[in-house]
Each structure stands twice: as structure tokens, then as C-alpha cells.
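Figure S4 source data
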Amino acid sequence: MPTADELKQMAALAALEKIEGGMKLGLGSGSTANHFVKSLGARVRDGLDIIGVPTSERTAQLAKAEGIRLTTLDEVPALDLTVDGADELDEKLRLIKGGGGALLREKIVAAASRRMIVIADDSKLVPHLGAFPLPIEVNLFGLGATRAAIEAAAYRFGQPATLTRRLAADGSPFVTDGGHAIIDASFGLIRDPEGLSLALSAIPGVVEHGLFIGLATSAAIATPDGVRWLHA
């Protein structure tokens, strides 16, 4: 029986098979995406010619260490493909992302890509989104008012949420690469992901949220029996 880490690597290697020379790639963040970046680095050292846009400072550091040539969306505003992980996904390829705190850059990069492959082990595939708390990146200014607006939006959808400001490992308030806070919203079952997504985006203090809807085009789901592909 493969371990969770071995399953993550299986999913990463399945996505790697879709990479072709000359591609402009979005490089995701998180433990599963790290497997992809490391495997991609090995192919680059063997002669694969690609260029990548990292979705976090950590991914940028890893990609540089692997010898992957990097660029920015200012220099290359349209990408061929993004490969990234997910904290949860359903059969419709709706995602919850942001457990690592990079959701804003992840969503910007995914939206700039023609395609997005999600890589995950089978524990991340769920019937309904919401068991994983939804990360919401918020501006520090007006944090209390933004929090109240998030609670009100959740109430309108009939699912009061428990909101918790994320803390760093040392107990200090977590700050994203963009200088924002993250509120983790525990909704339980999210009954209407599309509606909730629009409602959260309409709150002025919300910079971005971790519901990724209509962005993923396929997913490589690693199971003990092999990799299962989902397509939008």
C-alpha cells in the first residue's frame, strides 16, 4: 500500500507526462506541487526547455534550486498550463485551495493559463466541498468589518461559519506573500460553491478566497490502484 507521500508523487509524475518542450508553465505551491517541481527540475537538467511562473516565494526558491528558468506574468502574461495541488476537490473539479497561504497568486496564475491540471492523492477527492476550512485572504485594513461581512454572507447562504484568523507556526498572525491576513472559514458542507464564491468576492475587504471554480480543466488523482484522471 503506497504512503500518502508516494501517492502525491504518483500524481505529480502523471502530470509531468503532459509537459512538452517550449511550454510556459504555472508552478503550484504545497507538498504535492513540490513533487512536481522537483521532477520537472530533473527533466530540465536532462534538456527539457520550459519556463515557469511560481505561485509563491517558496516555490520560486525550490524551482531555482532545481535549475528551472523562471519568469513573471508581466513578462509572459499568458501561460500554457498550470500544475498545482488542492486541499479539496469534487467530481466537477471545483476546488478549495489556500491551505499553504498562497491562494491569491495561485488563482492569478491559474487564471492566466489555458489549462490547469490538479494533482492530488485520493483523500482530497470529496463528494461535497467544505470539510476543509475555506481560506479567505483579507486586507488588514478594516479586518473586523470584513470578518462581519463574511459572517453575514455565510448566513445568507444558510450556513453560519466559524471564522479563525490564521496564525504562523510561532503563534504570530500569519501574513501572506502579498502582505495580507488569512481567515479560515469552517463552513462544513458548502451547499452552493458558485454562489458563495460570488458573495465573498463582492466583499470589499476580501482580496481573494480559496474557492477555485471553472479554473481546473483536469485532475490526476493518485489511488492505491493507480492514477485516475478527471476532466472538466
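Figure S5 source data
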Amino acid sequence: MRFYSVAERVAFLVTLIAVLVLALLPVPRLKEFGIDVGFHYDKLNHASAFAVLTFLGGLGWPDRKVQVIIFLALVGAAIEVLQGTALIARDLDVFDWVADCIGMACGLVAVICVHWISRRKG
């Protein structure tokens, strides 16, 4: 395993934890902690988070891109279900999951381009 695969895997896991915290903390808690990151358009937050996750996952596990996509699609769906619970008291929105999937497609295109460029150079 290349050293930078380890770095990319660690970056993926740290980013995944950050996304889960941001997605699953109730809004009053986010405000209480002074957390206000992202774009003002919620769908763009979802798409960008999952694009980055897919990109890092695709670099960290280049031979398991399909598994990374399936895992992230399930994570996105789970986030939406959990956001709809009374405990978290946020909005369950299927279109947030659609934005997650669009982000995953963008991240996948980016990682495929990086792999294509690296193969052409080396």
C-alpha cells in the first residue's frame, strides 16, 4: 500500500466523522457551539460534502470505488432518516439524499480524472 493511500484513507475517515457530526447535531447545538460552516444553500452543502467524501474514498480505495459509492449512498440515506427523528429534530428531505448522490457522481468523475492523469504521466 502506498503511503499516500493511508493519508487519503485517514482524510476520508476524518471527513466522514466531520460530516456526520455536522449532519446529526441538532441545529440549536450547532448554534450553541458556534458552528456555521458551509453554503447557505443546503443542497450544495450535501453535494459538496459527498463529492469530497467520494473523491477521498476513491483515492484511498482505488479498487473499491463501487463499494465506496454504495457505502456513501447508505450513509446519506441514514443521515436523512436520523435527521427526521425527534431526537435530532431536523428535516428528513429525500432531495438532500439526491444532492448527496449528485455530489458522489461529481467526486467519482474527479477521482477517475486523477487516476487517468496519473496513469498517463507514469
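The chain has five helices and no strands. The mean pLDDT is 90.
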